[in-house]
Amino acid sequence: MGWNDIIGQERIKRIIQRAIIQNRVAHAYCFSGIEGIGKDGLAIEFAKTVNCENPIINDDSIDACRKCPSCRSFETLTHQNIQLIFSLPAEKSGADSKKETVMTRLSEEDANLVQEEIKQKSKDYYHRIEIPNATQIRIASIREVKRSLTLSAPTAGRRFVIIIRAEEMTKESANAFLKTLEEPHTGITIILTTSKKEFILPTILSRCQLIECEPLSEDLIANSLIEKKNISPEDARLIAQFAQGSYSKALDFLNEDMKSNRELIVEALRRSLRTINYRLDLLEIVEKIVKMNDKNKYETLLVLLLLWLRDTYSMQKSKSNDYVINQDNLEVLTRFVNKFQDKEMNLAIDLIEKAILQIRRNVQPQLIFINLFVKMRELFL
User: Fold this and answer.
1) Integer angstrom CA distances of residue 90 from 102, 112, 174, 192
2) Fewest beta carbons within 10 Å, which of 174, 206, 217, 314?
3) What is the pLDDT of residues 220-242, one digit of tens each?
4) Domain that holds residue 376
């Protein structure tokens, strides 16, 4: 893996590489931006390049050689100068916090899952580390970081601690981490990556150099899908439009039949707006949706409907089709706008955004979808 494996983010790459070349690497950074745009990859590549034994320098750019022993260790994320911190499941019963590390206090099954996730991350910077029942970065992980930073460096170079999805730190662990930031250590850099920096303590952010990473353009996402995933330009463009600037979201959509999913959720909207005998038909299609039994698919459907209605809102307000995402569905969109041209499409969009939040909060899906379409009916009819 190298800088070129991180899609776009050229401005951020220049900032990082300039800091390395000028020997002005800060002790703490926060890489912020939406999910799936390469923040973790930037942090890992930063660490690898700083520790490379034979870096390739060209004017104002610097790249790791990817051949020296240090680079080879970074390629598998096993280098002693990199420590990844992320949410872990609960410890096994009977674990001794004074004698064991965070990893050895996990069950064998959970420890193996963690190692597999790290392995996947080393092969794909856009892989999202996810472990069942792991939603918080607990204080035990932060305490282990603090202990390790007081020890002598195990090897030459600069040590990096990368806290992935830092917003998942508990209040207790965030306060403990703040104390670590207040006492900078020579030769150590801490990088937080987050898509929700508003959930991180302001006192933590104030001690970090904030690097804002931009959403990716549709062209960058589409071209990457064509090049890396060997899909047709037509499908790549469609997925890129739905991805909303996130390459990871685009990868999620690769495994979905986007057009069929869109047709399913728009059909649910149609049924909710029938003037007679709508209840049974609506319940039938909601039942079909709920049987998917997958939170991610529920959210995907809602996002597809959200984008579809945003198109209607855009057409309604601008009297133009120039900004329509669902270009292949233009005829259906036009009919919908003409029929409901005096309705407030933006209120329907608000309803969907609330439904998405409810999905994330684990509200019963059947209740969410029925409630959503009943309110849509009240809004449009």
Assistant:
1) 10, 14, 18, 22
2) 206
3) 999 999 998 888 887 888 888 87
4) 256-380
